[in-house]
Design a protein that fits this description.
The protein is mainly alpha-helical. Helix 2 packs across helix 4. The chain is built from four helices and no strands. The radius of gyration is 12 Å and the shape is globular.
Length: 64
Protein backbone atom coordinates (compact mmCIF):
# COMPACT_ATOMS: atom_id res chain seq x y z
CA UNK A 1 0.00 0.00 0.00
CA UNK A 2 1.27 3.45 -0.81
CA UNK A 3 0.30 6.80 0.67
CA UNK A 4 -2.95 7.96 -1.00
CA UNK A 5 -1.54 11.00 -2.81
CA UNK A 6 -4.81 11.92 -4.54
CA UNK A 7 -6.56 12.11 -1.18
CA UNK A 8 -3.72 14.21 0.23
CA UNK A 9 -3.92 16.65 -2.68
CA UNK A 10 -7.69 17.02 -2.36
CA UNK A 11 -7.62 17.40 1.44
CA UNK A 12 -9.13 20.78 2.35
CA UNK A 13 -8.84 20.90 6.13
CA UNK A 14 -5.88 21.71 8.39
CA UNK A 15 -2.85 19.88 6.97
CA UNK A 16 -0.91 20.17 10.23
CA UNK A 17 -3.66 18.38 12.15
CA UNK A 18 -3.76 15.66 9.50
CA UNK A 19 0.01 15.16 9.71
CA UNK A 20 -0.11 14.89 13.50
CA UNK A 21 -3.05 12.47 13.38
CA UNK A 22 -1.27 10.24 10.84
CA UNK A 23 1.92 10.36 12.90
CA UNK A 24 0.16 9.38 16.12
CA UNK A 25 -1.82 6.59 14.46
CA UNK A 26 1.34 5.27 12.78
CA UNK A 27 3.04 5.17 16.18
CA UNK A 28 0.09 3.23 17.64
CA UNK A 29 0.23 0.74 14.78
CA UNK A 30 3.99 0.31 15.15
CA UNK A 31 3.67 -0.41 18.86
CA UNK A 32 0.72 -2.79 18.48
CA UNK A 33 2.24 -4.72 15.54
CA UNK A 34 -1.13 -6.23 14.64
CA UNK A 35 -2.03 -8.39 11.64
CA UNK A 36 -2.88 -5.31 9.57
CA UNK A 37 0.70 -4.08 9.93
CA UNK A 38 2.12 -7.47 8.96
CA UNK A 39 -0.22 -7.63 5.97
CA UNK A 40 1.04 -4.18 4.93
CA UNK A 41 4.72 -5.23 5.25
CA UNK A 42 5.28 -2.98 8.26
CA UNK A 43 4.39 0.23 6.40
CA UNK A 44 2.59 1.95 9.24
CA UNK A 45 2.47 5.49 7.81
CA UNK A 46 0.60 4.51 4.66
CA UNK A 47 -1.71 2.26 6.68
CA UNK A 48 -2.42 5.07 9.15
CA UNK A 49 -3.15 7.53 6.33
CA UNK A 50 -5.48 5.07 4.64
CA UNK A 51 -7.33 4.41 7.91
CA UNK A 52 -7.82 8.11 8.57
CA UNK A 53 -8.91 8.97 5.04
CA UNK A 54 -11.37 6.06 4.94
CA UNK A 55 -12.73 7.06 8.38
CA UNK A 56 -11.80 3.72 9.95
CA UNK A 57 -10.08 5.82 12.61
CA UNK A 58 -11.24 9.28 13.63
CA UNK A 59 -9.21 11.91 15.41
CA UNK A 60 -9.99 14.91 17.56
CA UNK A 61 -7.56 17.43 19.00
CA UNK A 62 -8.23 18.94 22.37
CA UNK A 63 -6.50 22.21 23.16
CA UNK A 64 -5.11 22.45 26.62
Amino acid sequence: MIIPLEKLINYNANSYELAVAINRRAYQLAVLKGPEVEKNNGKVVSLAAEQIFNKHVEYKFISG
